[in-house]
Description:
It is elongated and about 65 Å long. Strands 3-2-1-7 form a 4-stranded mixed beta sheet. Strands 4-6-5 form a 3-stranded antiparallel beta sheet. Helix 5 (99-111) packs across helix 6 (139-165) and helix 7 packs antiparallel against helix 8. By secondary structure, it is an alpha+beta fold. The chain is built from 10 helices and 7 strands.
Amino acid sequence: MERSEACPAPRLRLLGRFGLVYGGEAVELCGNARRLLALVGLRSSVSRTFLAGTLWPEATEEHARGSLRSTLCKLPHGDRALVTCDRNAISIADSVAVDARELAEIALRLVGPSGAPGAEPVPTVLFGEGELLSGWDDDWALFERERLRQLRLHALEALAYRLAGEGRPALALETALTSVRGAPLRESAHRAVVAAHLARGDVSEAVRHYRAFRRVLREELGIAPSPHFTRMLAREDGLRSDDAGVTHGPYRA
């Protein structure tokens, strides 16, 4: 067997602490090499001009391009390439598995028009705790972190509704609560929790959760839940709108 066939595919970890597994072993990279690989890994393909200007914003164009060439030479060069380069762009190699891109691809399928097929298993990657490039404060990293966070939250909510509709309310509830944990004041996440409770026929828990959210929203932001949220409970048989705490606009005591 050829050596290249025996060598496992490289894996790039961008969720939580940066990590690179190459040739089956963890590899330490210098700071610039980590930043270069992370940005290319997130965007798949990046122009040389954009990459040099983003990673070395205060340098002259000539110096930034020189730093880019020098940093590329510091990447591991073995049986499997990490990046491919041409005159205009640098791309992540097809063989490199990037956890953040895998998460984004799954999330995009879930929030798409048809969502993920019901036969697919629950994607556990959505339940991970690590934020993108934790501790990095580069402007581009902050933007990508928020983009992925929002996409993940939307996907968790979409998955919660899908699971509730498939008759799996316990999993739906866990999924919705994971979204709440990621964004405690996000109303759409709390609506997914209430929908999961209602799918179980547990109106009392749905009302309890709604009231708890209403209280936190009032204390933190001085506003009330949206009419859409209150109507989720007000239309339940035997539940009056004042029981749901219907209040529109800024909170009134």
